Amino acid sequence: MAPPMLRLSYNDIHNAIASTAPRIMSEFSPDLFIAIGGGGFIPARILRTFCKVTTDGTKRNIPIQAVGLTLYESMGGIEEVAGSEVVRVQWIDFSTLGSKLKHGGLLGRRILIVDEVDDTRTTLVYTIKEMQKDIKKQLEAIEDPAERARLSEATKLGIFVVHNKNKPKAGEIPGDVAYFAAVETPDVWLAYPWECETDIEEHDRLRKDNPEI
């Protein structure tokens, strides 16, 4: 039996992110977003509205980088099932991380990975492991041991998802990676507005039929 559908509006997503942003800023204070495509693009852009960094007394937007990962296997129709292997189709373009790029672009940053949902957790675990590999490689290029240790300590990873499904996961988030979820849900079918292929107004009207969770 298919899980019940929970239809979500753009306002639902916006309000959930707005309510969580102050905690993200106070507990993690990111200065770089990594959006996992395609579900993380819109949440990352909304989150940027509520999260600013202050440089020389001026508030500035946090830059957003994108990674493209595929976890779902086509079944020849509209149905999709979770795949067992993550396919990496796009990764961070380090050359665009700013004119003051230093130490490869990641070192010394507080990097927040953004996605719409923590479902099986497969893509999130993959992204963390790949980011850790990039950070390790960039640290190895630092010749001075004291500077390498300082940058290692200053470089932090975090995760933000709009929804976390309370279900068994395919992997664990490392203890030193900050984790933020705006909404906790049971294992339901989350119908995001950007996935609506028909009438978005009807999608919003049918939210009245959402199950109680």
UniProtKB/TrEMBL annotation:
A GO molecular-function term, please? hypoxanthine phosphoribosyltransferase activity
Q: Which InterPro entries match?
A: PRTase-like, PRTase_dom
Q: Which UniProt keywords apply?
A: Glycosyltransferase, Transferase
Check the record and name the SUPFAM superfamilies matching this protein: PRTase-like
- Transferase: present as a keyword of the record? yes
One GO biological process term: hypoxanthine metabolic process
Q: Which GO terms describe its cellular component?
A: cytoplasm
At the top level of its lineage, which domain of life is listed? Eukaryota
Q: Record keywords: Hydrolase included?
A: no
Q: What is this protein called?
A: Transferase
Classification of source organism: Eukaryota, Fungi, Dikarya, Basidiomycota, Agaricomycotina
